[in-house]
Design brief:
With 205 residues, this protein is an alpha+beta fold. The chain has 2 domains: 3-66; 70-204, 2-Layer Sandwich (Beta-Lactamase). 51% of the residues lie in helices and 18% in strands. It is built from 5 helices and 6 strands, in the order ααβαββαβββα. A 6-stranded antiparallel β-sheet has the order 1-3-2-6-5-4. Strand 2 and strand 3 (110-116) form a beta hairpin. Helix 3 (81-97) packs antiparallel against helix 5 (186-204). It is elongated. The model has no long low-confidence stretch (mean pLDDT 84).
């Protein structure tokens, strides 16, 4: 929520509270007072709704910025047909069924797949990826704005607002960049983990 939307929201809450207090403390309730209280309450609720609509509009603008960028598909063809098929359909599923804007599969010191909105650099794993591998669990960076090591992922796509990193055992990672801040749900993370585990088994075999 932007600062302007927050200000609108808290002003609405403040006036709504004042309206309630005024109606509860006034001993002489008249029809004109009731009409004034009703109008004040409606005005406060409208301010609160405007704050939420403001936030939704800003979110849609961010999404449209990503949707207007041409997407790419780069696949390492030196793989089995089964692995190629799995990478192709699985990446398409994640890009269409989740808020993912881009994804990368890194395995045995090489990039197997880049799909979605593509950056211009060559990705090399660094401290964040190695930490995820050591802990053997998914890492969700829901808001990268203040994450000190976000530059590690600029080669995938610059200024990604959110990132998910999942280790493919000790041999690689699946890295997914989100369209907006805090865009991935718990259900999205379960899909990502499930597909990653399936992909790992195929790549091993």
């Amino acid at each position: 929520m932007s600062n302007q939307a927050k200000a609108c929201f808290f002003i609405g809450i403040f006036f709504l509270i004042l309206t309630i207090i005024n109606s509860l403390t006034d001993a002489n309730i008249t029809p004109s007072l009731q009409r004034a209280e009703l109008l004040a309450g409606i005005s406060s609720i409208i301010l609160i709704l405007v704050a939420f609509l403001w936030t939704d509009t800003k979110q849609e603008n961010i999404n449209s910025k990503f949707s207007n960028i041409k997407q790419g598909f780069i696949l390492d063809k030196d793989l089995s047909q089964r692995a190629i098929d799995e990478l192709a359909w699985g990446s398409q599923l994640l890009l269409t069924a989740t808020p993912a804007a881009t994804l990368l599969v890194y395995w045995d010191e090489r990039i197997l797949l880049r799909r979605g909105i593509l950056g211009k650099g060559d990705f090399s794993p660094a401290s964040t990826c190695f930490d995820v591998r050591n802990k053997s669990r998914l890492l969700s960076l829901s808001n990268t704005k203040f994450f000190p090591a976000r530059e590690e992922f600029d080669s995938i796509l610059e200024e990604l607002p959110s990132i998910i990193i999942y280790p493919l055992i000790d041999r690689g990672w699946l890295i997914i960049g989100g369209q907006t801040e805090r865009c991935f749900s718990t259900a999205d993370e379960k899909w990502i983990i499930g597909w990653s585990n399936k992909l790992t088994d195929i790549l091993i075999n």
